[in-house]
Design brief:
The complex is a heterodimer of chains A (173) and B (306).
Chain A (H helix, E strand, L loop, with lengths): L15 H16 L11 H12 L6 H15 L5 H20 L4 H25 L11 H16 L17
Chain B lengths: L19 H22 L3 H32 L2 H39 L9 E9 L7 E4 L12 E4 L2 E9 L4 E5 L6 E6 L5 E7 L6 E5 L12 E4 L11 E9 L8 E6 L8 E5 L17 H8 L1
Antiparallel strand pairs in B: 1-2, 1-12, 2-5, 3-4, 3-12, 4-5, 6-7, 6-9, 7-8, 8-11, 9-10, 10-11
The chains are: A mainly alpha (173), B alpha+beta (306).
């Protein structure tokens, strides 16, 4: 149990049920029928990246691939396009996960930006290679928006782990 | 055990499973294989259908909040709008009633003339009403998903119409839903007939101009096309029934360096925001079979000799 610099308290172990619930919730957010919005942030990529960094033993490349296939079928995209980019994203996350959490959250957001950008760039390149039409420069907004959502995800997804380890009547949660 | 947590379970020291590199290579290769199989060989349809069927409940849940908001918005739009819409519908009906009255007589006359000339009877095609579930979020193509699939005998290739014209064509059929490629998609071509001149041509989706238009390709710069011309399906493809409105010509650019002029069209159907659509059974079954190719080459001769 090693505390990182700047960490206030030790976290409770992450519940696998909660991890799966957040992944499915992110999938639902991605599936909201809001029409064709090329700059829409990919919530599922963000949550997958978050858990790949925070719980690398529980969420890895295999799960990322599976959710990527689900996104491909939902988007009616090339089968394997999201799967490829999520696989690469999860792998890149496993490369930086030991280093990343020693930084403060805004600096973490800055460091995940290139990863998310690479994931979107791979999708763009794959689609352009397979004969797609370039959707416009607004696609650049998506990784930026995801990186901006990283602090929010760091708060929301860690809430169950921030509960008190020994609840009493003064601290019921 | 992740750093900075109270997790008491020890991480496995020796049995750590395959390394991250080997997983990356395996899943990366698998997704590349799937992409090639999907784009080049079209063999991934069973995988897609299986995933789509598993995803259907999740999609249904995701659709509910948006449907609820839309229904609530429709509920509070008020009486005045409903009344004005009703009045407009009545006006339209009155305008159509004249033509509708003539249709019976014209159909009868047409049938009689066709019988007289020994032509094949015109066909009435079976249709299926469907509702658009959502616009596909993929920014590279133009597709919508409708709530009818193989369970309702939707066939791949079936034309899809909305209340004002041809919307697109069913390109993939899953057990419960189907994907419809819109006429404004770059990869969809539709044979059309200029109603004013009777000239046949082919209209393609046009990805420029925000991807909301169509283009009439390969029309010579001296071809008789004017702004405002109505294009309807010509029926020569054996897929679309003839005479359905497709688009109107909106702009013509003559180009000095090219023998063709660039002709922009605006689709008649609501390519953004169509809700209720009709799936028509494709006519392919009624098209006469091609004559068998003449046997040629040593292989077929040997095959015929046995």
């Amino acid at each position: 149990m090693i505390m990182r610099s700047g960490q206030q308290q030790l976290l409770l172990p992450a519940s696998p049920v909660f991890i799966w619930c957040t992944l499915v919730a992110a999938l639902l957010l991605n599936m909201l029928p809001l029409g064709r919005v090329p700059w829409m942030p990919d919530f599922l990529a963000l949550v997958l990246l978050f858990w790949s960094v925070h719980q690398p033993l529980k969420v890895g490349i295999g799960i990322a691939f599976m959710f990527g296939l689900a996104m491909d079928v939902h988007h009616t995209a090339l089968l394997g396009q999201h799967a490829f980019s999520y696989t690469a994203l999860s792998f890149l996350a496993s490369l930086i996960q030991r280093r990343l959490l020693w930084f403060k959250v805004p600096l973490q957001a800055l460091q995940v930006l290139p990863l998310l950008g690479a994931a979107h760039g791979m999708e763009l390149i794959l689609r352009l290679l397979s004969g797609g039409v370039f959707p416009g420069w607004v696609v650049l907004i998506a990784p930026l928006a995801e990186a901006l959502l990283w602090p929010l995800a760091s708060v929301l997804l860690l809430v169950p782990q921030l509960r008190a380890p020994d609840p009493d009547e003064n601290r019921p949660l | 055990m992740a750093l900075g947590t109270l997790d008491r379970s020890l991480p496995p020291f020796f049995n750590q499973g395959p390394s991250a590199y080997s997983k990356l290579v395996f899943f990366g290769a698998l997704s590349l294989f799937l992409m090639v199989a999907d784009a080049r060989f079209n063999v991934t349809q069973p995988v897609r259908s299986a995933i789509a069927t598993v995803l259907y409940p999740v999609q249904w849940v995701a659709l509910q909040p948006v449907h609820a908001v839309r229904n609530a918005a429709e509920y509070v739009t008020g009486l005045t709008q409903a009344e004005s819409e009703s009045a407009q519908a009545r006006r339209q009906l009155a305008l159509q009633s004249l033509r509708a009255g003539q249709v019976e007589e014209l159909t009868q006359e047409n049938n009689r003339l066709r019988r007289l000339l020994g032509l094949k009877e015109q066909l009435t095609t079976p249709v299926l009403a469907a509702e658009v579930l959502y616009d596909a979020a993929d920014p590279y193509t133009r597709k919508v998903i409708i709530d009818r699939g193989a369970a309702q005998q939707v066939e791949p290739g079936a034309p899809v119409l909305d209340e004002s014209g041809v919307l697109g064509q069913v390109t993939r059929v899953h057990p419960l839903v189907s994907e419809v490629t819109l006429v404004v998609d770059r990869d969809l071509a539709i044979p059309v007939l200029n109603v004013r001149t009777g000239a046949r041509s082919v209209a393609y989706g046009d990805p420029s101009l925000g991807g909301a238009g169509m283009e009439l390709r390969f029309m010579g710069s001296n071809a008789d096309v004017q702004v405002g011309d109505l294009l309807t399906t010509s029926g020569v493809d054996g897929v679309y029934p003839a005479g359905l409105p497709v688009a109107t010509v909106s702009r013509i650019e003559h180009r000095a360096e090219s023998a063709f002029s660039k002709i922009y069209c605006v689709p008649k159907a609501l390519t953004a925001g169509a809700r209720h659509v009709i799936v028509v059974k494709p006519l392919t079954a009624d098209v006469a079979q091609r004559p068998p190719a003449p046997a040629a080459g040593p292989a077929s001769k040997r095959g015929a000799g046995k």
